[in-house]
Amino acid sequence: SETHNHSHIMMKLIALIAALSATAYATLDISRTVSQVGAGTVAKVTFNTGCTQNDQYGSNDCSLVWGNNYTVTYNATFPPITEGHQLAINLKFDGAIPLDVKCAACGANCQFTVPIIKKDVNITMPPCPITSKMGSDTFKLPADPLPIKVTVDGTISLLDSTGATVDEVSVTVSAEK
């Protein structure tokens, strides 16, 4: 389905990076802190289950079970995201191995290689412009993720055409037995 708000795109990237970096443990734990919100932006992203906290931005402190289906509901109002906007992904695996990626927020593919496992990733970003959206999507976490335990933490930011940060979310993702 067409999910084009920047908060949902960030959640998809978080879920993808988590799935690529986690292990065959029972749960995937995700927490986030919204550190910057652009002028005119109001966004809320919620999971249907698995989260213990909820704030003005939606679900937080989530413990998702491998192999289960989840529904994410989003409601976001924001100025249009256009061709010049970028996503900046600045993460560290186990506090040491960096993943630093900048790619177009819309209208192009986002390509990078995940460290440690050397996994190539190619995400088709939505067409430009991205405008305010509301709706929901269902996704399934893989049942048999990678055989290594990794904690991932860092920031995912939306940059405007000048390179200034518009929105920023700090994330921590880890697998637990």
Taken as a percent bin, the fraction of beta residues is over 45%
As a whole number of angstroms, the C-alpha radius of gyration is 15 Å
Oligomer: single chain
Largest sheet: 7 strands, antiparallel
Structural class of the helix and strand makeup?
Answer: mainly beta
Strand order of the largest sheet: 3-4-1-12-11-6-7
Average of pLDDT = 86
Assign an overall shape: globular
**End-to-end C-alpha gap:** 33 Å
Total DSSP helices: 1
What would the keywords be for this entry?
177 residues, mainly beta, 7-stranded antiparallel β-sheet, 1 helix, 53% strand, globular, disordered N terminus
Give a nutshell description of this structure.
It contains one helix and twelve strands. The protein has 177 residues and is mainly β.
Question: Explain this structure to me?
Answer:
This protein has 1 helix and 12 strands. With 177 residues, it is mainly beta. Strands 3-4-1-12-11-6-7 form a 7-stranded antiparallel beta sheet, with helices on one face. Strands 2-5-10 form a 3-stranded antiparallel beta sheet, covered by helices on one side. A two-stranded antiparallel ribbon has the order 8-9. Strand 3 and strand 4 form a beta hairpin. It is globular. The termini are far apart. The model is unreliable at 1-5 and 19-25 (pLDDT under 50).
